[in-house]
Amino acid sequence: MSDLDKLASALRHAFEVWHARATESPELRDRQATVSVEYTGDVAELQRAGLNTGYNSDGEVSGQIEFRNLERLLAVPGVVRVTMQPNSRPLLDKTITEMRVPWKVPPGFSGKGAGVIVAVIDTGIDIFHESFRTPSGTRILELWDQSATTGGSAPPTGFAQIGRVYNSKDIDAGIKAKPPFASIDDNGHGTHVAGIAAGNGNQDDRCSFPGHYVGVAPLADLVIVKAISLPANSSSNTRDALRWCAQAGERHKHPNGSNKPVVINCSWGWDLGAHDGRDYNDVSVDRILRPSGNPIPSGLAVVAAAGNEGYGDTHESGTLQPAGQPGSSATVPFRMPDYSTSPDPISIWYDGAASITVQLTAPVSAAFPSTNTTGPFAPGGAGSPFTIGRMQISITSPVSGDSRHGNQKNIDITISATPPQWQASTAYAPQASVVPRQTPGGHLYECVTAGTSAATEPIWPLTLGDTITDGTVVWKCMPLLNIRPGIWQLLLTNTSSVTANWDIRFQSNHDEGYPFFRLPSEKGDPPARRRDNTISSPGASRNAITVANYSSNTITSSSSRGPVTYPLGTASGEVKPTVAAVGSDVVAARSRNDKDKPSSCCDQKVVDKTGTSMAAPHVTGLVALMFETNPHLTFEQVRLYLQHSARVDGIPAVETPPVIDPSTGIRWGNIWGAGKVNAQAALAETPPAPNSGGGGQGRPTISMDEAGLGYTPHTIFSRLGDWQRRFGPRPGLMLAAALISRHVDEVLGLINQNARVGAVWRRYGGPLLVRHLLHNHQTPVALLPATVKGLTITTLIGRFLSILHRFGGEHLRGDIEYYREFVHRWPGTDLDGLDAEAVRLGGKP
């Protein structure tokens, strides 16, 4: 057996891709991977081979290693298998304008998470955000930034020696010193997730004020790991991050000496892999919740997002008949979008008793009339990598099945773009004349003098081609590192005598284009086979509490779906997803380094986001409240109470989960799981701690009044939307919404940037009016009241319209002139009066 056979398939494929391209740049030559090594022997031998070790338990060692040292590592006697940790990404979709806080702690419930640790493994946290602070200091007990290089201290012995760890004193000192801190959340995802689970709402900006946008467990302590979406050339280790968080309760005990309970939130995932609950991150979760040779720990749970691939068309599946029979081959088309520049991985898994040959075919290119296909590639075959045009195709297809995945076999493919090789010419020196340019659209191009280059990939689409004149030289520009867009094809052929079930997956990337199976001719929702079995890892872990995303009575189209192909004998409570929670348009803490816009001009410290990433931390916060009630609960008990108490009212009949376990009453369906998470009922089912010890407060009083839940609008748009839902599409409301939507950005910009406009707005009570609109829940007799706390609204509107007319743009001034009378009618006029005026003016502008 070759030493390379000790590499798990994904790592072997990554190593072969690296080996083929390592001469391209120093960055590639120095690339490293986080790995797990099954080993019998002295760990020091692994370290001498170049492994930066971390986790070491049960004959398995994790750590980081440079690709160029892999062969040295494999040659160490006693190395049995080396597996790669996948690069995880935040599970986050684009948001929409209207936003609501999904649900709040039930009225009458006294617990707010005190004495419980909420641990968040994500993109980091904004330590300066007031929602994570109290007058006495930060609420963050520890922050491990796996990409940081300064400040703090090294991770403790036994953990991967990457990044820096900051304790609460380090963080308080950083807050006192003012920004920047050595660790920032420049993505914003982690700060938002932490705010949903445990933000205390203490932020105070120009519009909101303390007490709003409060998380589910606002008194919980926080432990943070920045391990997702790290900067280039930095390493992450989610396995060690999980273990470090799981041990946080031991490091931060209650005054009575007992461990604090910990709930870990994982709003990130990996879309490739076998999706059988045995991928790298799934196993990492299972090991801390069901440690080998030890009882299930109490006061520890992991909550994971289901993923956002329910509508992404990144999964396809099918069945091949035995060789020689009809249906033994299948052509699977997929679409490569414009401007896909990063390497695109493709993962194929199929029944281990079968044998499948794969062939990849690219769209035809007139500029590269030579081969556009890899030809058939059999398991264990040779010939990878293949060159097609200016692209490189790498394929790895082991002969044997993977024992960790029920002996399933897999094929890994990577499509990469390679830099164009411009023809050398006496007319110019390539080093001097090949220059990068960036078009107004933000796309990178390489430019050469016209007429001197060899045949090059045509610009996609052709209408985007351009020439640039620089003095007397005309430059011809081509896309830089662009994977050929269009319809690609995978041809799968069963060469065995048994039926082969197969699944193909792409890893989505929200920063640029990635391949997907939806073709231009397809309409409507994706077929069920593409949407099913899309739960991300670690959400596919048998022991994680996996959360889907819904809005009102509709599952969000993007929310990933089960089932997960677990082995026979799986317990009913382990099926996926576990429950569904609202995660659409959620307003929570915004990192100062978040590139997403704040929720409004005055809410600079909150932002709205949507996805299962936002649904999961609601359940994380709820689990913290359950642990506060009883810190001795195991994750199995917590999961049971969540599933048993879930609601199914309002769920469409065809999607209503049936009871699958009469002994427990657990419901389950592959879309909603057990149903909508019900905080009140779950807390009511949670038994009190035997002696109310260990930081738990015993069983709190819970009001079962469903009116205590529901939605709370928190922007002008959501307030208008709330009124429209309650009163219907009335002309006055529709016209008001249209005027606000049309001019809100310009008006907010004038308030913030024009001193005179801002002075009039504040002097005559604008912020007071906004607070009244956002937080007053009385049914409006009029769109606006005549007065608010002594403020005369008519005076404010008159003064404000005048200053806006003076400094506003042409369209704003025109609408002020035409609709002035309608706007002046808002204060004190009932809806019938506004409707009549709107109809007279012709309705929407």
Account of the protein in words:
The protein is of the alpha+beta class and 845 residues long. The protein contains 21 helices and 38 strands. The strands form eleven sheets. Strands 7, 10, 11, 12, 13, 15, 29, 30 and 31 form a nine-stranded mixed β-sheet that branches. Strands 16-28-18-22-21-20 form a six-stranded antiparallel β-sheet. Strand 34 and strand 35 form a beta hairpin. Helix 15 (716-727) runs antiparallel to helix 16. The longest helix is centred in the last third of the chain and has 23 residues, at 731-753. It is globular. The model is unreliable at 91-109, 421-479 and 693-714 (pLDDT under 50).
> Helical residue percent?
10-25%
Question: Structural class from helices and strands?
Answer: alpha+beta
Query: How big is the Rg?
Result: 29 Å
Q: Describe the main β-sheet briefly.
A: 9 strands, mixed
- Helical segment count: 21
Net shape? globular
Question: What fraction of residues sit in β-strands?
Answer: 15-25%
Uncertain regions spanning at least 5 consecutive residues: 91-109, 421-479, 693-714
Average the pLDDT over all residues and give the rounded result. Answer: 80
How would you describe this structure in keywords?
nine-stranded mixed sheet, six-stranded antiparallel sheet, 21 helices, 38 strands
